[in-house]
Specification:
Number of domains: 2
Number of strands: 14
Low-confidence stretches: 317-328
Strand order of the largest sheet: 5-4-6-7-8-9-10
Strand content: 15-25%
Helix content: 25-40%
Oligomer: single chain
Number of helices: 10
Mean pLDDT: 90
Shape: globular
Length: 328
């Protein structure tokens, strides 16, 4: 199977408002239905294989990435991203045939939402992801760090004293300072009584079982009070996606033009909810061209008419009723 360069270009041309999102999404659906046997079987079992609009497209439960190899027929993965997980929990696997698609997606979004990496110093406090390996987040941040071309940029585990020294040196540079940090590690950093008044924090990843989970507002209030950063943002992404969204001050996320969130009824996954109603988060990520672009996540959230969304938590009973493909 060859790359569909024409469809790739159409997807990223959405940034220029050249096409209708719905029309492109339907093109991606029919192409994936034809070339992805797992997704095809799921659509057939759901009796949703001839959609005429986005609301008729079936969304693959994210748990499939733990039990199935989600990649187009005839393609081999050049990289396999694995989710972070607590001990004993099976990790998701995202088989990525063309990492360049991921790079194009995350780089465009980062530049639009955060800024040019070439003008920044980027620190990464992501110990859990580094320990477990095969992280899509580490892949992305490493790419951004390399783009800074600055010797101070880099990853850190739990060597907070060295990180504090690097921060002090970075303050002397005429660059924007970015700190990517998993939530629990940022709380650990709070105990160092450090002033990050010139730093933009991008919080991600949650507590990973290391600390009690907190809502965004509570977490950001603690970080603001203890670290005094210039700004706190948050990154919404996951192993199963090749696109990310970044949070604004009002706690709503905003993604690239080829990413869209739809809220489903938790009791009826085929029913979608209007704006500001809480339900399960479905993500359309057209950059997932060679895996699956239509994913029903385990997150709870709300969305607005202009495609901004808020994450409110997670829920457990996310299996689609009546579908046994997951256990076959």
């Amino acid at each position: 199977m060859q790359r569909n360069i024409s469809l790739e270009q159409t997807i990223f041309d959405l940034a220029k408002n050249s096409y209708s999102f719905e029309k492109v999404a339907l093109r991606v659906f029919y192409w994936q239905y034809q070339h992805n046997k797992v997704y095809q079987q799921f659509c057939d079992l759901m009796r949703q294989n001839q959609p005429n609009c986005i609301s008729e497209i079936p969304f693959l439960p994210i748990a499939f990435f733990k039990n199935k190899e989600i990649i187009h027929d005839g393609l081999a993965a050049k990289v396999i991203f694995k989710s972070s997980a607590t001990t004993g929990v099976k990790r998701s696997h995202h088989h990525v045939a063309f990492p360049s698609l991921y790079e194009e997606s995350f780089l465009w979004t980062y530049k639009q939402k955060i800024g040019e990496p070439e003008d920044q110093i980027i620190f990464a406090l992501l110990p859990n992801y580094l320990d477990q390996g095969d992280s899509s987040l580490v892949y992305m941040v490493n790419h951004l760090i390399n783009n800074t071309k600055h010797p101070l940029s880099g990853f850190f585990l739990d060597d907070f004293d060295i990180l504090v020294e690097k921060f002090a040196l970075a303050q002397k540079e005429r660059r924007k300072i970015i700190l990517f940090g998993v939530s629990y590690a940022l709380l650990d950093l709070c105990e160092k009584s450090i002033d990050l008044s010139n730093v933009t924090i991008i919080e991600t990843g949650g507590m990973k079982g290391r600390r009690k989970e907190m809502i965004k507002e509570e977490l950001h209030e603690v970080l603001m009070n203890q670290l005094n950063p210039r700004q706190i943002s948050s990154e919404y992404g996951m192993t199963e996606l090749l696109s990310q969204a970044y949070m604004h001050k009002d706690y709503y996320f905003d993604g690239p033009p080829w990413m869209r969130v739809i809220i489903r009824d938790t009791n009826d996954p085929k029913t979608f909810l209007p704006e500001n109603r809480t339900g399960g988060v479905n993500v359309i990520d057209l950059a997932n061209l060679y895996s699956c672009a239509f994913i029903a996540t385990d997150d709870l959230g709300q969305c607005t008419l202009n495609n901004r969304f808020k994450i409110l938590g997670r829920f457990d009973n996310s299996d689609i009723r009546g579908c046994n493909l997951l256990v076959q």
